[in-house]
Amino acid sequence: MDLLRLFKALIYSWEGFKAGVKHEVAFCQEVVLAVILIPLAFYFDVTVLERALMLGAVFLVLIVELLNSAIECVVDRISLEYHELSKRAKDYGSTAVLFALINCIVIWLSILINFW
Question: Which of 6, 14, 44, 86 is the most buried (most CB within 10 A)?
Fold first, then answer.
């Protein structure tokens, strides 16, 4: 793999992360949650698989939120006028974030209930 290409990809990813923090309140809130939950996943005496599930669930929330934000950006770029398909696209993205959050909560609670 070309190292320059890899470096540029990392820069683009960092720019996307910074834009998400700057422009998306929900992403900012989820980053704060991740900053709390990621170290917490290492605090609990759980199996490697359980820890991987806990971390994966947190990262999935961030991933889905960024994809939802990307959908919203594209829809808004096309037109700010109301259109049923635009609303539907944004609603789908919002629902995906909700499901990712529910998934995260279920995984964490399932593991922590066994921990206690």
Answer: 86
In the set 65, 72, 81, 84, the catalytic residue is 65
Q: pLDDT digit string (tens) for 49-80?
A: 999 999 999 999 999 999 999 999 999 999 99
Nearest-10 crossing angle of helices 25-43, 3-23? 110
pTM of the complete model: 0.93
Please indicate whether residue 65 is annotated as part of the active site: yes
d(CA 38, CA 17): 17
CATH code for residues 3-115: 1.10.287.3610
